[in-house]
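User: For a teaching handout, I'd like to show students what a predicted protein-ligand complex looks like in token form. I'll give you the sequence and the SMILES for fe (ii) ion. Please answer with just the structure.
Assistant: Understood, here is the input followed by the structure.
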Amino acid sequence: MSVRNIYPVSLSIIRDEHEHLSSVIQGMLYFVRQIAHGGPCPDLKVFRAMLYYIKEYPEKNHHPKEDLYLFAKIKERTHQLDGELDALSEQHSKGELMVRQLSNALLDYEFCGQPAFALFNAQVEQYAQFYFAHMRVEEERIIPIARQILNDQDWQEVDAAFLENRKILDDAGERYKYEQLFSLIVNITPAPIGVANPL
Ligand SMILES: [Fe+2]
Ligand SMILES: [Fe+2]
């Protein structure tokens, strides 16, 4: 079976969401590495906003849509990827737990200071490694096969599910809620990661 010529909109949304999430994780990594090397620490609100983004967006929208639509459709068409898809779904649950642990480690760092930094630092590094590997498998292994085996009807259903993500608007009903949150992170994060004044 050949790859369709039209690139499914759901896959563009998945890639955009991965890019945003990667930038947020890279931002956390940048600052913990800076602190680990004796550099200044940004306002902890920056870390809180980043963790809030991960908790609100990928955990509540991106992962469930992958499990319920993309992975489910692939499993209907082939059992070739069952083991890998199950592993990715387990990672979605594990990621949620890791983010909760990260939030706790950040609270410890905020209220106990330097002695609590090592654990927070280690958990950010661990989460980054874990999540980058997860996205790589989805993009390099799963999506290329999905493009070969899902038919037009399948993609219509997967596309519709992911397009729903774009309908979650902010309180003013004007802007896609998570883009607004992402912009807020960029605005409060010091340069060179964000656009706020450098530390
Ligand atoms: Fe995923
Ligand atoms: Fe993903």
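For the handout, you might add this sentence: Residues 63, 66, 88, 92, 134, 138 surround fe (ii) ion (ligand 1) (CB under 6 Å).
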